[in-house]
Amino acid sequence: MTDALITEPDQKEGLSVLYARALATRAGFLASVPEPDRDSVDLRIQAGGPRRPALDLQLKATVGFGEPQAGVLSFRLPIKNYNDLRIFTQTPRLLVVLDLPPYESQWMTVTAEELVLRRRAYWLSLQGRDEVPGQQSVTVRIPEHNVFDVEALQVLIEQSRNGEI
Hints:
By secondary structure, the chain is α+β, with helices and mostly antiparallel strands. The chain has helices at about 10-25, 80-85, 105, 150-160, and strands spanning about 30, 45, 55-60, 70-80, 95-100, 110, 115, 120-125, 135-145, 145-150. Helix 1 crosses helix 4 (about 150-160).
């Protein structure tokens, strides 16, 4: 038995950061962690070229998405994160939620041939959403086609470059 120093939520957070960093690396972008996290930004992804576009990400992970309902995945988001993500900012902010398998033993495996992080993440922009007074959390609905992968990240960076998000 090992004496683990981090909790299950800490592991989920670490895997969500790992996932986003891996995509940024594969796309050729920089990824950095703002410290301390006081503004619901867990990771910033930056690209080169004109205007040096960037995205600020609030990263979450869950084992509770379940099956999509009418093409939508539901996620409970703390109201502080919701409010921080819905304001208008110069650098676009996105919620990225990593969908993990139900059992910790399935989250990640390592073999001589592969490092496998199971499932995938989904993204959502909350910019301009209405205030939700008196709530501790809010359910956000993420379209299941909003898969956060290398191609989506490249498109989102271009949209940031062009002021489209």
